[in-house]
Design brief:
Strand content: 25-35%
CATH class of the largest domain: Mainly Beta
Shape: elongated
Order of helices and strands: EEHEEHEHHEEEEEEEEH
Distance between the termini: 55 Å
CATH superfamily of the largest domain: Cyclophilin-like
Number of strands: 13
Number of domains: 2
CATH architecture of the largest domain: Beta Barrel
CATH topology of the largest domain: Cyclophilin
Number of helices: 5
Radius of gyration: 20 Å
């Protein structure tokens, strides 16, 4: 078995490299990913194109007309060496008003039953902490949130829905997230927010970004509708 030392770097196709900081989802590893991402955005090297950060790694694209793999690798390694000494990420804290249960959260009863809890306990637990945005994906603006209490963890649906309304708040395994647009989906839906997570006419188009802290705030259905 080959023992890996982090971070490590490897080519990803002919015009990208992958920097890997670990193999487990945790806040410290994700912090390093986003610290490198910020450095690359603020101080791009010659030929830099874009980045795609994930839970534990970051994909860095570059233009072969301007640079090659070895030059890009040297530039990325130089920035990795500075993480922890110069980079302090101060997260934005964003509240998400959420109507739990009823027509907005058709699966909350199943989540409660699966964990031997009441619906009220599920709501209290889900809305009692801040969730870091680890990464975006699946659909435009979909935030994968970490730090959910395992007391309300629940498996994905056996048969995904063909339509999940935008703003739906879901649980899948030990994660929670928010559907930014109408789409298919297999997460357990426990509530919904009226906030728009993705608006192509807005700048930036995404309400949330990796590194943000999200807090779900229970809201009355009528008050939520008045905000729409």
């Amino acid at each position: 078995m080959i023992e890996l030392y982090y971070p490590y770097f490897k080519p990803a196709g002919d015009h990208a490299l992958l920097a890997v900081f670990g193999d487990e989802i945790d806040l410290a590893t994700n912090h390093r990913v986003h610290a490198l991402d910020r450095l690359l955005q603020e101080e791009p090297f010659e030929g830099f194109v874009e980045t795609i950060p994930t839970y534990t790694s970051i994909l860095v694209y570059y233009n072969l007309l301007n640079t090659g793999y070895e030059n890009a690798l040297a530039a990325v390694k130089e920035k990795v060496d500075r993480i922890g000494e110069e980079i302090e990420l101060i997260p934005r804290k964003i509240e998400i008003p959420t109507v739990y249960g009823g027509e907005f959260g058709p699966d909350i009863g199943h989540v409660a039953q699966h964990n031997h809890l009441s619906i009220e306990e599920v709501i209290r637990i889900h809305s009692s902490r801040d969730y870091p945005v680890y990464m975006m994906g699946f659909t435009p603006g979909f935030p994968y949130l970490g730090g959910m209490d395992e007391a309300i963890a629940a498996p994905r649906l056996e048969s995904p829905r063909t339509h999940v309304p935008a703003g739906s708040v879901g649980i899948a395994g030990k994660q929670t997230g928010i559907y930014p647009i109408d789409s298919p989906g297999g997460w357990q839906i426990i509530g919904r927010t009226s906030l728009k997570l993705f608006d192509p006419k807005r700048e930036p188009p995404f309400l949330l970004a990796p590194g943000d802290l999200v807090r779900f705030v229970p809201a009355q259905a009528q008050a939520d509708k008045q905000q729409e």
